[in-house]
Write a structure and sequence with these properties.
Distance between the termini: 49 Å
Radius of gyration: 21 Å
Number of helices: 11
Strand order of the largest sheet: 13-12-9-10-11-14-19-17
Largest sheet: 8 strands, antiparallel
Low-confidence stretches: none
Structural class: alpha+beta
Helix content: 25-40%
Mean pLDDT: 91
Shape: globular
Oligomer: single chain
Strand content: 25-35%
């Protein structure tokens, strides 16, 4: 079988390896000339994963048997549309993919089905009256965009018009969501919808870059919820699965825990990016990438999650703008046993220009521990050891990013 994989980042390396381990060929589509997953695929075609017609042309010319992606949001819509048009097998319909990748559709269905979410409005032009009855602060974001691009928190003193214009420009459909900001802990909860049953895998707290209006995640921390909250999260996920007709699929739900109540920010029928599939496996024991590949090949896998570790954090490394040339200290943190695994998201000789977005983070590393003290000590030691060098030999890594 020949499989067309959309997007060639670090996460898609594991997807490609899992597919190839089953004896299949992989053609990769990614608009970068040298994406991280390129050397793992049998063939790379440089095109945008968001260009539906171009991807369809490639699928036809390459005579592929399947189109798929993993751990990325907007390419999922392309997968569903191309698969539907060419009658190729897929686990998600185009209508469902549209509902779970476009925040305008998503918010509408959530409101209609009583799923807790913030008050919102949808705009397609800079209209400062659109949220005149809303309480500040506000959140402005494109309805359909990856990597936290165009997402801003707005106070009454910020330039609302500028943020709105940027969000609309970042959107594929040139529309944006404006919603009331809910303060509290941001929780990322992962599930597997097994038939009609929603299986809780894990929940982590998403820590963001401090002292900015950015929503860029710097760390995913576990544990973050108690047993009762886990049940509440599972109830919310079950309501989402029912409202959006989701079956036999990974489900990622991002929420705010505000004054003891959960509010859904957004969700998707996929695993999260930024090596989240490895976080899920480490915490729950479920190899979710293998489960996902089983699913896209038409099987109905079952999962049996367990609590495998006491503490875990996925830590992301960001840099000041500059030419990323080399990671120093990587072998040391591996040798000392400070990490479970590290992940490189940017290849060497790559220019960093938007260091406050997740699309420009250089690497990440996963740490587990038996106590908070051990966790803090390991992260501190890694932070002291790692360096991200530019073309002049300077360390451009942003150290101690979580304070």
């Amino acid at each position: 079988m020949k499989v067309l994989v959309l997007a060639g980042g670090s996460d898609q390396i594991d997807l490609i390896n899992e597919i190839k381990s089953r004896g299949h060929q992989v053609v990769l589509v990614d608009y970068y000339p040298n994406p991280p997953a390129k050397r793992y695929a049998d063939k790379h075609i440089q095109e945008s994963t968001l260009d539906v017609e171009k991807v369809k042309e490639i699928a036809i010319s390459e005579k592929v048997d399947m189109v798929c992606t993993a751990c990325t949001d907007q390419a999922l819509l392309t997968v569903a549309k191309v698969s539907e048009d060419l009658t190729l097998p897929t686990y998600i319909s185009y209508k469902t993919a549209l509902n779970v990748t476009n925040k305008s559709y998503m918010k509408k269905v959530m409101m209609e089905n009583g799923i807790p979410t913030a008050r919102y409005t949808i705009v397609d032009k800079v209209n400062l009256d659109a949220a005149k009855d809303f309480q500040y602060p506000l959140v402005v974001k494109p309805v359909d965009c990856n990597s936290s691009k165009g997402v801003k928190k707005i106070t009454e003193t910020d330039n609302f018009a500028e943020a709105l214009a940027e969000a609309i420009e970042c959107s594929r459909t040139k529309t944006a969501v404006v919603e009331e900001f809910k303060s509290g802990e941001e929780v990322s909860a992962d599930f597997y919808v097994q038939g009609d049953e929603v299986m809780f895998l894990c929940a982590t707290q998403s820590k963001k870059i401090k002292n900015t209006n950015s929503f860029t995640i710097t760390q995913s921390y576990y544990p973050v919820v108690n047993e009762n909250q886990e049940k509440k999260l599972t109830e919310i996920a079950a309501n989402i699965a029912k409202a959006f007709n989701l079956k036999d699929t990974p489900l990622l739900v991002q929420l705010i825990l505000h004054e003891g109540e959960f509010y859904v920010l957004e969700f998707s029928a996929r695993m999260g990016g930024g090596s989240k599939h490895k976080v899920i496996e480490t915490i729950s024991g479920v190899d979710i990438m293998k489960v996902y590949v089983d699913r896209i090949f038409g099987e109905r896998p079952t999962v049996q999650p367990k609590k495998m570790v006491k503490y875990a954090t996925m830590n992301y490394v960001y840099c000041y703008n500059g030419m990323f040339v080399k990671i120093e200290g990587r072998d040391d943190i591996r040798y000392k046993g400070l990490i479970v695994k590290d992940f490189q998201y940017k290849l060497e000789n790559n220019l960093i220009t938007k260091h406050e977005t997740s699309g420009d983070r250089v690497m990440g590393y996963l740490v587990v521990a038996d106590s908070l003290k051990e966790m803090d000590e390991k992260i501190s030691e890694v932070d002291k050891t790692l360096k991200i060098l530019d073309d002049k030999g300077n360390d451009i890594m942003i150290h101690n990013i979580n304070g």
